[in-house]
TrEMBL record:
Organism: Pandoraea oxalativorans
UniProt entry keywords in alphabetical sequence: ATP-binding, Kinase, Membrane, Nucleotide-binding, Phosphoprotein, Transferase, Transmembrane, Transmembrane helix
Catalytic activity: ATP + protein L-histidine = ADP + protein N-phospho-L-histidine
A Gene Ontology cellular-component term: plasma membrane
Molecular function GO terms recorded: ATP binding; phosphorelay sensor kinase activity
Keyword Metal-binding annotated: no
EC number: 2.7.13.3
SUPFAM superfamilies hit by this protein: ATPase domain of HSP90 chaperone/DNA topoisomerase II/histidine kinase
Protein name, entry field: histidine kinase
Any Pfam family the entry gives: HATPase_c
Top-rank taxon: Bacteria
Domain Histidine kinase: 211-413
Amino acid sequence: MTHFPIERTNVVQLFWLRCLAIVGQLATIGVAQLWLGVRLPLEPMLTIVALEVLFNVLTWIRARRGVERAKRRTDLDLMSQLLVDLAALTALLFFSGGATNPFVSLFLPGLAIAAAVLPWRNASQLALLSLVAYGALNFQYVPLDLADPGNLLRLHLAGMWVNFVVSVLVIAWFVSRMSRALRARDAQLARAEQRLLRDERMAALGAQAASVAHELGTPLSTMAVVVGELRSESLGNDALKSFEPDLQTLEQQIALCKSAIGHVQMRAAAPVRQAMAEWLPAFTTQWRLRHPQVQFQLHVPPDLTTRIEDTVQVGQILTILLDNAAYFSPSSVTLDVAATPDDVRFTVCDEGPGMTAELRTRLGNSPVMSTHGGHGMGLYLAFASAQRLGGDITLTPNTPQGTRAELRLPMATFFFGSRSQT
């Protein structure tokens, strides 16, 4: 006759715990009846155990049919489960000596569980019902029918010892499980708060970026007109011809700024899908216009047939990683692309001074002030965008020097297809 804890959110585990309790009750009845010389009213007691079995079967059916789609178990649900256990224990004690049964203190584990997981009002109600049941068992019960009444004290002491062991194991097991569940929940809440804070920062940055993009449109158009007029003047003016390469560079940089503004506007539109073999060379060509002095190499598998789902967002992440590499190592920047059935990996390597292990752990989690005057905002945005796509970015030391940044995106972000498809 063992009481048992109820896991609030795990119905399947509750089913197995109740199975153990039923086995313990049957074992106790069998030992008392066959070996200890206690003649118990088997018919009503086995009927109670059978009702527990039926209730447990219903619990299993409920878990199988509704655990995935049902809402989280409420306090009322847990209260009803504990009430059923209290009623079963009270009924079994009634037919086996009432308050004189050493197992009567098995009311306590149930109360300990209720106090730990239920609101104060529900726990106090269950405590009151336990007191009423215990008090009633002092006056109304079926006395134990012993073959040898002289063994009563010895049997009572043995039962108290078994009862103590069961109570200690049940309470200790439940408290440890509850503590572990609470720690896991607190960790999940902390991660959720970090994600919420990151998303709020991202939303604020997105709003600011949209506002800045809108404000920059007119000045860039004016600059493009002025540069165009200067190039027209340089065609017939020998004094301006020497500035023609500079004017061409200005036009390229203005075009890049307009392209960046266009990407901000495209973020509000539907994702742009394109074959990787077509998109990647065009993307890197445009990026090299931003850093013409950088020695850049692109390594792509010849049989790459992957299509990219959102070129704008992936391009934004790669641009940040490549910009950082070009800033620290203009003499050598490489981009390696590898595709597997599970993910696609972009690896950006540089030969710069590298970074400390402490800085690598901080970058991407929050904006970080660097010794070079940067704030780590670009990497913060890159890490957040990669996580939103279901991927991640890892920063490791490069060999022989520098930094190796790997962007891993799940194949859910991509899909395989023919290169000829667009």
